What we know:
- The complex is a heterodimer.
- In chain A, about 45% of the residues lie in helices and about 10% in strands.
- Chain A is α/β, with parallel strands linked by helices.
- Chain A has a 6-stranded parallel sheet, with helices on both faces.
- Chain A is globular.
- Chain B has 12 helices and 14 strands.
- In chain B, about 60% of the residues are buried.
Amino acid sequence: MTTTKSKVVYSPVFTDGAEFRIPTFKLLKQDGSLYKSAKAPDLDKEKALRIYRAMVTTRILDERMLAAQRQGRLSFYMQCTGEEAAVIGSTAALDDGDMIMAQYREQGALAYRGFSIDEFMNQLFGNELDYGKGRQMPVHYGSEKLNYMTISSPLATQIPQATGYAYGQKMAGEGHCTITYFGEGAASEGDFHAALNMAAVHRVPVIFLCRNNGYAISTPAAEQFAADGVAPRAYGYKMDVIRVDGNDILAMYQATQEARKLAVEHNRPVLIEAMSYRLAAHSSSDDPSGYRSKDEEAVWREKDPILRMRLWLESLKWWSEDDEKQLQENMRREVLETMKRAQKRPPPALDTLVTDVYDEVPPHLAEQFEKVKAHICKYPDEYPKSAEHAKGGA
Amino acid sequence: MSKMNMLQAINSALDTAMAENEKVLCFGEDVGVFGGVFRATSNLQQKYGKARCFNTPLVEQGIIGFANGLAAQGSVPVAEIQFADYIFPAFDQIVNESAKFRYRSGNLFNVGGLTIRAPYGGGIAGGLYHSQSPEAYFAHTPGLKIVVPRNPHQAKGLLLGAIHDPNPTLFFEPKRLYRASVGEVPDEDYRLPLGEAEVIKEGSDITLLGWGAQMEVIEKAVEMAEKEGISCEVIDLRTILPWDVETVANSVFKTGRLVVTHEAPLTGGFAGEIAATIQDRCFLYLESPIARVTGIDTPFPLVLEKEHLPNHLKVYEAIRASVDF
């Protein structure tokens, strides 16, 4: 039995969805002033500065760590450059107890929640203090205390997981929701469609935040989908949707604030499409000159979300040239000092090779591990990272 | 003949196949104008047009489902999965569809024209999700062929063999060797046979068996062993499924000892299948237990990658242990 209650027609009528053109929500102009009929969201000075500091921290961290990768200190890096407002504006509109299930380019969300530079560095260098125990590539952060699920490289897998996590939150009844971030490329994966459909069917408090940054590695959005972006898909699942200027911190903040109300107070999942641009390469392994022009990048460099917020803060006298200088200097110094410290720390203990595969190391793996240790003890010079541990028994 | 690295050899194979048969199509994530993240499909779009070499949306299950349909229609799709670690969304299409298309239809339909290329393996600081060797998952699936080349010459010949083989074929490329392995490669079309292992060095004391990037590891271990007077026979299996039992068994009849090595974890790894078959075929000829030198039974690590990988020292130790048994 069908549940569709549609009007009946007696000649074939096709519809192409053109009536569903989705507008873009903007508040802040690039010069830091508001659009004529726009009104700033309810955002006090303290929170505004917390957001701004997180954006600047993210930018500086990204610049320094890409440089570190180029110097050979780091195997790999991914920048958030250009998308700081989309990520941090949305995270800031949530409760710090809400869950974040990100893709891999959302270090800004962690910076906002208070992940320290030390914590970033320990993961990037995979040292003994890395929460992930040196098992994953750089930028695969996770923090239980900051409600930030550890990153997984396979694309879009986190999206249906967010639906499930949020369903659990709804059952727990503590008024929390989950936000999941992903790119417009990942939105092509089957997992995306499954996640949205299940969220709508089960009325789950989840916010799907698509960072439409124009490219999936080299593939431009125009070769990713024929439709007008990702947003129209929400209609097909009967879900609330909004498209936002992703470089507009105030619009991102307000849109997510409203989305959170729909999710938490009304159990209505929401899709937010943040329109932005991946100003940097996909990763340190990528070279965008093979697929896009410098001119195109320059257009988006002019739309820098951080400068836009800074000009707004200055117009309110919440921020000054001196504040900026001090923040920049402090952050650069902290990043450098912390990087040196993290790089010097020893790697994780050898037994991290076999722990956490299960809750306990099963006998067959324990036996394999004994063989690995005996082998390392026989060739200690060949295994400088673990020879000491192998000798010591762990 | 030209000097090529493995990527250039793969590119040359694709170019050759596309030039010869307009039904050959190459597609996948970023394979179009960019030529793939490793550049294996460089210049193919420029040369053969967007209709025959193109970017797909980012959806592996879609890529292989689409490829199955194309192959059923009579086209010759060569689909790229960007990393073998990302092949699993397409597992259903490969295991339930590609592999069973012919059987379930009583041979009314088949997807024999399908080739799936994917870079696999560790040693590039790729961690959990850019290092895996998933061949054993697929080796458990009758109906598929699985091929792994060890060098540029093999890569071109085997890939052309796979493209022309009338069965769906997975072609796993050892990405650690993409640029590291360089050799002479014929410019013209040539095809190496599927299902045939190659004895690449004869010896009398012990047989070493591997595939792909592991052949280089074996070579280094053999160098160490031969300095001590151990005569090693080295075999590249080349095709994992269906595999060449005869060549391996004949070697073990002669040497009485076998070491099999792969990067994938021990339990359920393809070395287990080989060991079971060879002990069955060669039981009375074996001088020592068949040894498996593999990754350990954990996900692929990052910082401790070297400790995890079955390197030449571990293979050498296995040779010693087998000979001293």
